[in-house]
Amino acid sequence: MQYAIEVEQVDKRFGALQAVDGVSLSIPSGTTFGLVGHNGAGKSTLFKMMLGIEPVSAGQIRIHGTPVRGTAFRWLRQRIGYLPENVALYDNLSGLDTLRFFARLKAADARQCPGLLEQVGLAHAMKRPVREYSKGMRQRLGFAQALLGQPELLFLDEPTNGLDPQAIHDFYDTLASLKRAGATIVLSSHLLAEIQPHLDSLVILANGRAVAQGSVDSLTAASDLPSRARLHARDADAARRIGQRLGDAGFPVIATTDNVLTISVARAHRTGLLPLLAESGPGLVDVEIHPPTLEDLYLRQRHAGGHA
Q1: Helices marked H in 107-257
Q2: What sign does the CA torsion over 278, 284, 286, 290 have?
Q3: Which of 53, 216, 286, 293 is the most core-located residue (most Cβ within 10 A)?
Q4: 226-291: which CATH number, 3.30.70.260, 1.10.940.10, 3.30.2090.10, 3.30.70.100?
Q5: Cβ-contact 265, 253 below 8 angstroms
Q6: What is the pLDDT of residues 279-294, one digit of tens each?
Q7: CATH of 3-221, one of 3.40.50.1950, 3.40.50.300, 3.30.70.100, 3.30.70.20
Q8: Would the CA dihedral through 83, 89, 93, 94 be positive or negative?
Q9: What percent of the chain has pLDDT over 70?
Q10: 143 pLDDT exceeds 90?
């Protein structure tokens, strides 16, 4: 397997503060990888070390086999796109002039700028000064600069911050197209439910350490997290009868709202639930099964990682 990024036992210290502590990970080429963690977990610091902005205190990072240092990496960095959580923009420049400015910094062809602004939905505002841009428009402009030069590797830190639902949909459509073209994408976001469908694998950081990594499915399986079932009853009497039957069978109800019962189902007991529901009669009108989510996994691993 070819790896776009290899991180080996990396530490980062700021005086007495250990921001990153012995992190190792490998990100296969052409995949979407998530960095998940609480504020101060080390996500942004790890981002900056992988980009060569911050030097490592110990360990090694390689991008496409090239160590993140020296002349060879400076050339490689032209094929990397980066959207920081808070992108710095010049308010007096137009959107088009801003993108042309970034193109010169990156030695990218400025002729692609109008097309990129159209791609991110800013064609109508490309000649307006950035000071007139909304927060979402500024974020889309930041995304456009990350796409300069058709990058093979994208680092995106809280990339949908300020975007409306349509812009978020368009953003992930663009990422899917880039991935199909062979790009590797590294995402960091607090919106776990939003990024979950788009990740091939992830690492959960807590207090500078990698406490879990792998695919969402493999990590939830290893953690033995329960699923949740929502059972819609016909009326209050039916809800009461179904809840009693479930409780007697070892499936206690954890919440009831408007004749909807919520139960927690351990992984080992999932196959026993459906036959029981089939015997519930006409009082049960609908069933929703919700497998463990990335948020469930994150909360479990964060607690296990000893967050202070």
Answers
A1: 113-119, 135-146, 165-180, 192-195, 216-223, 236-248
A2: negative
A3: 216
A4: 3.30.70.260
A5: no
A6: 888 899 999 988 888 8
A7: 3.40.50.300
A8: positive
A9: 98
A10: yes
